Amino acid sequence: MRSLKSWVVGLLLGSFAASAAAEGPISSGDARPRLAVLDLAPAGVSPSLAAAVTGVLGNELDRLGAFRVMTSDAIRAMLALEHQKQMLGCSADAACLAEIGGALGVEYLVSGRVASLKDAHAGATFTLDLTLSAVRKAQREGSAIEVTRSEAELVGAVPRAVAKLTGKLLETRGGKLVLAVSELGALVKVDEMVRGTSPLDGALTLGGGLRSVTVEKEGFVTWQKEIPIPSGRLVEERANLVPSPDFIRQYEGRNKKLRLLAWVASGAAVAGIAGAVAFQARASHAYGDVASPDTFVYCQQKLLAGVTRGDGIDYRARASDLKSQVDTSQTLSYVAGGVGAASLAAAVVLWIVGEDPGRYSRYHESTGASMPVPSGAHASLSWEF
Prior knowledge:
It is a single chain. This protein folds into 3 domains: 2-169, TolB, N-terminal domain (Rossmann fold, 3-Layer(aba) Sandwich); 175-243, Immunoglobulin-like (Sandwich), CATH 2.60.40; 246-363. 45% of the residues lie in helices and 28% in strands. It is built from 10 helices and 19 strands. Strands 1, 2, 3, 4, 5 and 6 form a 6-stranded mixed β-sheet that branches. A 4-stranded antiparallel β-sheet has the order 9-8-11-13, with no helix packed on it. The chain has a 3-stranded mixed β-sheet with strand order 10-7-14, with no helix packed on it. The longest helix is centred in the last third of the chain and has 43 residues, at 245-287. It is rod-shaped.
């Protein structure tokens, strides 16, 4: 019996090498564990249904991105499962599967069966029973059972069964996800669990395998993607949220008004500051100095020297008139400066609060039409709304 088992192991390894070569080389940097999917045993169902479910099972495990999956097609090219067990002389327990997995050169093995049970009252039910075994430890790492009412439901239950089957194992083989979201304040969910709002504070630590990431924000189309998380790796992903037509209309209407007010406030700030400078210059000119005739300081100096009239000018009356001009110009300068400062502050706030009205212009729906022209060509008209 020992020589027979050695012969079978040698045959399996040789067949595995041939099938691996046919599937193509595997990158030496790929640290993912190798997993084999054995044919699911039919129990009360047609072999074609069991084969179909096995194929879907292999595809779902491959989509996880956590394993290098050896499909049942390659294994069927070696030996049928029942034949393997008979030749190896073992039953369908963990130790037996460990021997088969060791012969295939894999770290994990998925086996199971597809069964049907007929009930006179409830009708037929279909059961998918899966087991994930660790080859080196010769023990079960996970299991999953799904019961359905039809063959179609059975095939549809495979992704859910795979999640149950590998969930515990993949939690220990996790990685990190850096998610960049195009909008602020969007709700981020991973496998239906809330993980925060954008922008996220650093990378998310997730269990390995395929993770369903959802990003939601009011007024935007929900972004959802299944992202494979390799063990010990950092994955970067960007979520671009697409706004709804109603949101675009409201956004553009609000921000066009804010942008208009920002321009008005900016203009008022410039006018106010310019007016303050002009009135202050006028006040300074009227105030003058002792060397500038017809200024307040010049007239005042004449009065201090005891000169009240000269060149037909009443220095006392002229000084009073110029003093009034200086006071009025300074007052107007202060008012204009206050208006300019307030307008400037309002403009800054409006520019900060308001956003670019054309930010979502690329999402505008467009409609076009063409019409024939005398030359036989067609002219196109397009418009946006």
